[in-house]
Amino acid sequence: MHSWNDQAPIYQQLADQLAAQLLDGDPPEGEALPSVRTLASRYVINPLTVSRALQALVDEGLLESRRGMGMYVRDGARIRLLRTEREQFLQEEWPRLREKLRRLGLTAKDLKWEDA
Protein backbone atom coordinates (compact mmCIF):
# COMPACT_ATOMS: atom_id res chain seq x y z
CA MET A 1 0.00 0.00 0.00
CA HIS A 2 1.21 3.50 -0.82
CA SER A 3 1.39 6.20 1.82
CA TRP A 4 0.23 9.67 0.83
CA ASN A 5 1.34 12.90 2.46
CA ASP A 6 -0.33 16.23 3.14
CA GLN A 7 2.06 18.19 0.90
CA ALA A 8 -0.16 18.00 -2.19
CA PRO A 9 -3.55 16.59 -3.22
CA ILE A 10 -3.53 12.81 -3.63
CA TYR A 11 -4.39 13.06 -7.33
CA GLN A 12 -1.29 15.24 -7.85
CA GLN A 13 0.90 12.83 -5.90
CA LEU A 14 -0.39 9.97 -8.05
CA ALA A 15 0.12 11.99 -11.24
CA ASP A 16 3.71 12.70 -10.14
CA GLN A 17 4.32 9.03 -9.39
CA LEU A 18 2.87 7.94 -12.75
CA ALA A 19 4.96 10.61 -14.50
CA ALA A 20 8.10 9.24 -12.80
CA GLN A 21 7.20 5.79 -14.13
CA LEU A 22 6.72 7.25 -17.61
CA LEU A 23 10.13 8.87 -17.32
CA ASP A 24 11.52 5.39 -16.62
CA GLY A 25 9.75 4.10 -19.75
CA ASP A 26 6.96 2.26 -17.92
CA PRO A 27 4.80 1.82 -19.86
CA PRO A 28 6.60 2.59 -23.13
CA GLU A 29 5.29 5.21 -25.55
CA GLY A 30 2.29 4.00 -27.50
CA GLU A 31 1.35 1.47 -24.81
CA ALA A 32 -1.71 1.52 -22.56
CA LEU A 33 -1.71 2.35 -18.88
CA PRO A 34 -3.52 0.04 -16.49
CA SER A 35 -7.23 0.77 -16.20
CA VAL A 36 -8.63 3.28 -13.71
CA ARG A 37 -10.03 0.40 -11.66
CA THR A 38 -6.69 -1.40 -11.63
CA LEU A 39 -4.84 1.75 -10.55
CA ALA A 40 -7.47 2.53 -7.90
CA SER A 41 -7.07 -0.97 -6.49
CA ARG A 42 -3.28 -0.87 -6.68
CA TYR A 43 -3.02 2.46 -4.84
CA VAL A 44 -6.10 1.92 -2.63
CA ILE A 45 -7.73 5.19 -3.66
CA ASN A 46 -11.00 6.31 -5.18
CA PRO A 47 -11.34 5.79 -8.96
CA LEU A 48 -12.33 9.47 -9.31
CA THR A 49 -8.97 10.44 -7.81
CA VAL A 50 -7.23 8.19 -10.34
CA SER A 51 -9.24 9.74 -13.17
CA ARG A 52 -8.24 13.20 -12.03
CA ALA A 53 -4.55 12.19 -11.93
CA LEU A 54 -4.78 10.74 -15.42
CA GLN A 55 -6.52 13.87 -16.69
CA ALA A 56 -3.65 15.96 -15.29
CA LEU A 57 -1.24 13.85 -17.38
CA VAL A 58 -3.49 14.28 -20.43
CA ASP A 59 -3.45 18.04 -19.84
CA GLU A 60 0.36 17.92 -19.78
CA GLY A 61 0.35 16.16 -23.15
CA LEU A 62 1.79 12.92 -21.78
CA LEU A 63 -1.25 10.67 -22.19
CA GLU A 64 -4.10 10.42 -24.63
CA SER A 65 -7.52 8.95 -24.09
CA ARG A 66 -8.68 6.49 -26.71
CA ARG A 67 -12.42 6.13 -26.50
CA GLY A 68 -13.37 2.70 -25.22
CA MET A 69 -9.72 1.61 -25.04
CA GLY A 70 -8.21 3.55 -22.12
CA MET A 71 -5.24 5.84 -21.63
CA TYR A 72 -2.15 5.54 -23.78
CA VAL A 73 1.31 7.07 -23.50
CA ARG A 74 1.72 9.66 -26.25
CA ASP A 75 4.66 9.57 -28.62
CA GLY A 76 7.34 11.97 -27.38
CA ALA A 77 5.96 11.92 -23.82
CA ARG A 78 9.24 10.79 -22.26
CA ILE A 79 11.28 13.50 -24.01
CA ARG A 80 8.72 16.17 -23.08
CA LEU A 81 8.72 14.97 -19.48
CA LEU A 82 12.51 14.76 -19.36
CA ARG A 83 12.84 18.37 -20.55
CA THR A 84 10.29 19.58 -18.01
CA GLU A 85 11.84 17.65 -15.13
CA ARG A 86 15.36 18.83 -15.99
CA GLU A 87 14.23 22.45 -16.22
CA GLN A 88 12.40 22.20 -12.88
CA PHE A 89 15.43 20.60 -11.22
CA LEU A 90 17.85 23.23 -12.52
CA GLN A 91 15.56 26.16 -11.71
CA GLU A 92 14.14 25.04 -8.35
CA GLU A 93 15.96 22.15 -6.73
CA TRP A 94 19.58 22.64 -7.77
CA PRO A 95 19.98 26.17 -6.34
CA ARG A 96 18.67 24.98 -2.94
CA LEU A 97 20.84 21.87 -3.06
CA ARG A 98 23.92 23.85 -4.09
CA GLU A 99 23.33 26.28 -1.20
CA LYS A 100 22.99 23.41 1.27
CA LEU A 101 26.21 21.81 -0.02
CA ARG A 102 27.98 25.15 0.37
CA ARG A 103 26.64 25.56 3.92
CA LEU A 104 27.84 22.07 4.85
CA GLY A 105 31.25 22.67 3.30
CA LEU A 106 30.85 19.83 0.80
CA THR A 107 32.58 19.95 -2.58
CA ALA A 108 32.35 17.82 -5.72
CA LYS A 109 35.22 15.71 -4.35
CA ASP A 110 33.04 14.76 -1.36
CA LEU A 111 30.19 13.51 -3.53
CA LYS A 112 30.03 10.05 -5.02
CA TRP A 113 28.30 10.21 -8.40
CA GLU A 114 28.39 6.48 -9.05
CA ASP A 115 27.21 3.70 -6.76
CA ALA A 116 30.04 2.15 -4.79
Automatic annotation (TrEMBL):
<dbReference type="Pfam" id="PF00392">
    <property type="entry name" value="GntR"/>
</dbReference>
<dbReference type="InterPro" id="IPR036390">
    <property type="entry name" value="WH_DNA-bd_sf"/>
</dbReference>
<keyword id="KW-0805">Transcription regulation</keyword>
<keyword id="KW-0804">Transcription</keyword>
<dbReference type="GO" id="GO:0003700">
    <property type="term" value="F:DNA-binding transcription factor activity"/>
</dbReference>
<feature type="domain" description="HTH gntR-type">
    <location>
        <begin position="8"/>
        <end position="76"/>
    </location>
</feature>
<keyword id="KW-0238">DNA-binding</keyword>
<dbReference type="InterPro" id="IPR036388">
    <property type="entry name" value="WH-like_DNA-bd_sf"/>
</dbReference>
<protein>
    <submittedName>
        <fullName>GntR family transcriptional regulator</fullName>
    </submittedName>
</protein>
<dbReference type="GO" id="GO:0003677">
    <property type="term" value="F:DNA binding"/>
</dbReference>
<dbReference type="InterPro" id="IPR000524">
    <property type="entry name" value="Tscrpt_reg_HTH_GntR"/>
</dbReference>
